[in-house]
Design goal:
heterotrimer; A mainly alpha; B alpha/beta; C mainly alpha; A: mainly alpha; two-stranded antiparallel ribbon; 12 helices; 2 strands; globular; B: alpha/beta; 6-stranded mixed sheet; 20 helices; 21 strands
């Protein structure tokens, strides 16, 4: 059985990776054709849209680079071919290679999102455990906290945290300085709404697990309440939260756009916003593709983790 | 009689002011089995849980003691010592009563870790010994598997092993065999019997009088939180004193001849043999294969032929996974056979376009085990019946007729099935099946989810309707007693094949196939021989 | 954020019969009151704040909250409270429109996928997967980059990014309902496919999705205001909540109320709609018995 088991896993992985490639190709295709559907000169669209003051030379350069004088089918093949060799083009607003730009900023954003995800997980687990243990009033308070936390927009939370910890208390820097201290506020800003959300999910499944027959069996075996939680309920509560982590990571990527902007922290998110504002299509496309790739890979990872944590999924 | 191990006197449990257990007293001695019998809501499970201190807060009693120890004054820490150490609990359906994410060996190991001083290596050996003791084949492999990977019988054994791991003096078994097939149930009951012989006291909670009779020394009949009658099992069953006990016993269909109503002995006019009419529904060599991922295709129905005559009942028995339900779906035209033909009124009903099948569907009705899930949750009873009757001037009159036929008051029309009792829901389902004036009704485990007294009512109703409207029933059940009571002919199904088919009385009297014999031998029956 | 909201709540085919006579909880009352207040502000802002949201009065700039100006004044001396009240209309409209766009698109994709056979299902599922790979604001940002900023674009962009979540839920819902016993019962009764689809499948599958959408309006408001805050949607001095926050940002140390007060309006709206949506879900789910 182990041989066929390993083969099954490999096949599963291959299918998922092929899916990821398909997704990236589709996004690139979608953007390609969307740009050509927008009325006006595609060269102008690539260089900042109707409002931009692109020079004639720059436009001519783009037309040549993208083969805009050739038929659309040829342009498309050209674009996909370049993508295939990892050439994401040149950012016109920053006059830099897009891939290089992304490589420079990728790690900062990754660090931010991963830290935020971990923080959110810990906060949610704490809140969920506390809420199911507490009294009826405690549960109501916890549930209100979760809902409000999940509803808070990142940009407002960032402002309020700056107001509180920088302006009033002077404890933390208002902008993201290098070093761990500068990470605290951005990470907390990103993590809190997510934690509120994850806590709702965890609390529900934790409560379900604690009322299930197997929990009764465990209690009847002489297990303490703490034992029931640690040995049984926590795993059941974690399952849906693990499945959601892929989605959560995605929401953190888009949250990073806001948080990096408010805290003036260099990263993919801030670059994306600048690129969108400047309508720098090569850079927007590049960042979108890289984020999508990261998101898809994380989704595959959480699905794999799901299968590890829940043996019931492996059979199907 | 020696000093009882467990002694309960005037136990009362209430939930937010409503009494669930209302003054219950009983004793259990070492090596003895006491059965608490009752229908759902009688308070038997709550009684069991309160013995473990797991019934919630408001538990009072004059006396609640185990081996002389007062269970009313026990600290939480001591309770944990008693649970598993002194009293073990086995619940229904180990699929959900064992943690589905953990190997069963770990669950058994937990009990040892909590109640013994064994080192982890010793515990591992002990787990294997325990699994061996409960009759688990290949215990080393099984210990590493999860409940979902084991068959129903094996996982129930694992659950029992985890309950007896620390050697409790009292074992409480709450419907321990309810989710199991007859042959597996017999094995688990035997295991419980062995435990009792070795000196463990057994408190069996069950709704099934036949099971109770097989295992218990004494029985206490519970109803609405009280014990209405108790005594030696044989004595209570043969000579019931309380009206409720009598009703319970009367409700058990096994041994009651075909056509004799269970609940109204007044009209015990033994029915003349129903004239079996022409064949209305027929299967000719039908097979159905389901492809499976990572496994060989499943041959769910394998070359099955059967014929159902107008106005008669064909009982279809078999254990879970034998293909009964797939066969029913083939007959109902919900699934196309891979080979063979289904004929309805001598015309092909399988492999025809749905368009031509649709008008003929009115000849076929269906009643399911779980009526609630078969009703659109957004619809009231009226809407459900209207949907079946079809709109028209006559609709309301027809709905009234149907309600009358199944014995429901018109007040239920405005309610949703969710707010009806189990018996009422099944009556609505029957009314819906009757609406298009069918010739055949396929009943798939129609009474399995019902309490025994409600089951008797529904069985009586089905019989009445059959006579009134000349209906033919294909009656699918795992319960031999029920099938014997309702069927003219019987087909026994196993692994997709019909291994035996014949007149009901003959199959029960002299089964020809070895499997039928085994099935008959292993299913506990309540033939009290009073008739 | 549509996808996860269902994941946690175990969106099942609810028996819509709610607990008979169940009294509303404190949380539900508060949520309803907040939403009523916001709807009132959107429909008849003058009733709550008779002043002019755009009326400049430089002499009154940066006044802290007081009885006269409960939320203080901004850099041009405009009353922040008046602006928050008058902003409700635009914010709510954007939220509703975005949800309608997202839901409409999702209905097409989801129903087509579930009803029109295997090939269409495969295609719509793939389309959805692709849209899903640009989570949250990313899809909206790409859309804005191509089409250009503005209120209309933002609204469409937010709608677009909520669509894949709804579509996925609709598809699973329809498939779950289609596999249920009561659909089989309808087939046995000889009802036609269109009748079963229209009478049983769609009402049961879509009812919980619409509940979810009420919950999604709050989230759409948050997203749209995020985009305004980033300078891609409504532009100051329009009294849109996100834009107001953006305008207040440079003065955060001087006038915290310019940031805090409009933000509270957003949080209250989103939290109230989430709370209400969840309690509707809980109430309908209790009916499952």
């Amino acid at each position: 059985m182990p041989v066929s088991g390993a083969r099954r896993v490999l096949r599963w992985l291959a299918v998922r990776l092929a899916g990821a490639v398909f997704v990236l190709w589709s996004i690139a295709t979608l953007i390609f054709f969307a740009l050509r559907l927008v009325p006006g000169d595609p060269a102008l669209a690539i260089l900042g849209g109707p409002g931009s003051q692109a020079s004639e030379e720059a436009l001519a350069l783009v037309r040549q680079e993208y083969g805009l004088d050739r038929p659309v089918s040829e342009q498309y093949l050209l674009a996909m071919g370049r993508l295939l060799v990892g050439d994401l083009g040149t950012s016109y607003s920053l006059r830099q290679d897009v891939l290089g730009l992304i490589a420079e900023q990728f790690w900062g954003t990754l660090l931010l999102t991963v830290l935020a995800l971990a923080t959110a997980w810990l906060l949610a687990l704490g809140l969920a455990t506390w809420a199911t243990r507490g009294s009826r009033a405690g549960r109501a308070v916890a549930s209100a906290l979760e809902i409000v936390a999940a509803a808070v927009p990142h940009f407002w939370l960032a402002s309020v945290l700056i107001l509180l910890f920088s302006t009033t208390l002077g404890m933390l820097p208002p902008v993201s300085v290098p070093g761990p201290l500068g990470l605290v506020l951005p990470v907390v800003t990103l993590a809190l709404p997510l934690a509120g959300f994850l806590a709702q999910v965890m609390r529900e499944s934790l409560a379900d697990a604690l009322e299930s027959p197997f929990a009764l069996s465990a209690r009847a075996r002489g297990e303490s309440e703490t034992g029931v939680r640690l040995r049984h309920a926590v795993r059941h509560a974690a399952l849906p939260a693990i499945s959601l982590s892929g989605w959560a990571f995605g929401s953190l990527i888009s949250g990073a756009v806001v948080v990096e902007t408010v805290f003036a922290r260099p990263g993919l998110g801030r670059s994306l916003l600048k690129a969108v504002t400047d309508r720098d299509i090569p850079l927007v496309t590049g960042i979108a593709l890289v984020s999508a790739l990261a998101f898809v890979l994380v989704t595959i990872a959480t699905d794999a983790l799901d299968r590890v944590a829940d043996p019931r999924l492996r059979g199907s | 009689m020696s000093e009882p191990l467990l002694s309960v006197e005037d136990l009362r449990v209430s939930f937010s002011g409503v009494a669930a257990v209302d003054g219950v007293s009983f004793d259990v001695a070492a090596g003895e089995c006491l059965a608490l019998v009752g229908e759902s809501g009688s308070g038997k499970s709550v009684t069991a849980r309160s013995l473990l201190g797991l019934a919630g807060s408001s538990v009072t009693a004059q006396r609640l003691s185990l081996g002389g120890r007062d269970l009313l004054r026990v600290s939480p820490r001591d309770w944990r010592e008693i649970r598993g150490g002194e009293i073990g609990l086995v619940l229904q359906d180990a699929l959900v009563s064992l943690d589905p994410l953990r190997p069963v060996g770990r669950e058994i190991d937990d009990a040892l870790r909590l109640h013994t001083t064994l080192k982890s290596g010793q515990r591992r050996e002990r787990v294997i010994e325990l699994l061996h003791a409960v009759g688990m084949p290949e215990p080393e492999t099984r210990a590493g598997q999860r409940a979902g990977e084991l068959s129903g019988g094996l996982r129930q054994r694992a659950l029992i092993a985890s309950a007896i791991a620390a050697g409790p003096r009292l074992l409480i078994a709450d419907e321990p065999t309810t989710a199991l097939d007859a042959t597996v149930q017999a094995q688990v009951l035997q295991l419980l019997g062995e435990l009792r012989s070795s000196g463990t006291a057994l408190l069996l909670i069950s709704h099934d009088l036949a099971v109770v009779r097989e295992v218990s020394d004494r029985v206490a009949v519970m109803r609405a939180g009280r014990i209405v009658e108790s005594g030696a099992t044989e004595e209570v069953l043969r000579n019931p004193q309380h009206e409720y006990t009598r009703e319970l016993i009367r409700s058990v269909p096994s041994g009651v001849p075909r056509g004799v109503p269970l609940l109204s002995p007044a009209s015990a006019s033994t029915d003349e043999r129903r004239t079996a009419g022409a064949v209305i529904l027929e299967a000719r060599g039908v097979s159905k294969v389901f492809p499976r991922r990572h496994a060989a295709p499943l041959l769910a129905v394998d070359d099955v032929s059967l014929r159902l005559a107008r106005g008669s009942t064909l009982g279809l028995v078999g254990e879970s996974g034998s293909g009964k339900t797939t066969l029913a779906r083939l007959l109902l035209g919900l699934e196309e056979p891979d080979s063979g033909t289904v004929l309805l009124d001598d015309e092909p009903f399988s492999d025809v376009p749905e368009r031509s099948r649709r008008p003929r569907r009115r000849m076929l009705g269906a009643v399911y085990q779980d009526p609630l899930s078969s009703f659109d949750p957004r619809h009231s009873v009226r809407r459900i019946l209207l949907d079946a009757v079809g709109k028209g001037a006559e609709a309301d009159r027809r709905i009234a007729e149907l309600l009358d036929a199944v014995g429901l008051p018109s007040a239920v029309l405005l309610r949703r099935p969710l707010h009806l009792s189990g018996g009422q829901r099944q009556r609505v389902a029957i009314a819906r099946a009757l609406a298009p004036r069918p010739a055949v009704i396929v009943c798939d485990e129609p009474v399995s989810a019902l309490d025994v007294s409600v089951q008797a009512q529904v069985l009586d109703l089905l019989d009445e309707l059959q006579r009134e409207f000349g209906l033919a029933y294909l009656f699918i059940s795992h319960d031999l007693g029920v099938v014997q009571h309702v069927s003219d002919r019987i087909a026994v199904m196993r692994a997709g094949r019909i291994v035996e088919e014949g007149e009901a009385s003959e199959v029960f009297a002299s089964p020809s196939h070895e499997y039928t014999r085994r099935l008959l031998a292993s299913s506990p029956r309540l033939d009290l021989g009073t008739e | 954020m549509t996808a996860p909201e269902t994941a946690g709540t175990g969106l099942r085919t609810a028996h819509l019969a709610s607990r008979p006579g169940a009294r509303p909880t404190v949380g539900e009352i508060i949520s309803v009151l907040i939403l009523l207040l916001i709807v009132l502000a959107a429909v008849a802002p003058r009733l709550l704040a008779p002043g002019d949201p755009l009326g400049i009065s430089p002499a009154d700039a940066f006044q802290a909250p007081s009885w006269q100006h409960p939320f203080g004044t901004d850099e041009s001396g405009r009353d922040v409270y008046t602006r928050v009240v008058h902003g409700a209309g635009e914010s709510l409209l954007i939220g509703l429109a975005a949800t309608a766009i997202g839901l409409g698109l999702a209905l097409v994709i989801g129903i087509l996928g579930a009803v029109a056979g295997r090939a269409v299902d495969f295609a719509t599922t793939r389309i959805n997967e692709v849209l899903f790979a640009l989570p949250g604001l990313l899809l909206a940002l790409v859309f804005i980059a191509i089409v250009g900023p503005g209120v209309a674009t933002t609204t469409v962009a937010v709608g677009l990014s909520t669509a894949p979540g709804y579509a996925r839920i609709i598809r699973t819902q329809i498939r779950a309902v289609r596999g249920s016993a009561y659909i089989e019962a309808a087939v046995v009764l000889g009802h036609s496919s269109p009748r079963i689809l229209g009478r049983h499948i769609l009402p049961n599958a879509l009812a919980p999705v619409f509940v979810l959408a009420t919950l999604g309006v709050g989230q759409a408001i948050v997203w749209a205001s995020s985009l305004s805050f980033l300078g891609l949607g409504a532009v100051p001095p329009a009294p849109e909540w996100g834009a107001m926050l953006a305008a207040g940002r440079p003065y955060i140390e001087l006038a915290w109320w310019m940031t805090v007060c409009p933000g509270l309006a957003i949080v209250a709206t989103a939290a109230a709609s989430t709370a209400l949506g969840r309690s509707i879900q809980a109430r309908t789910r209790q009916g499952d018995g």
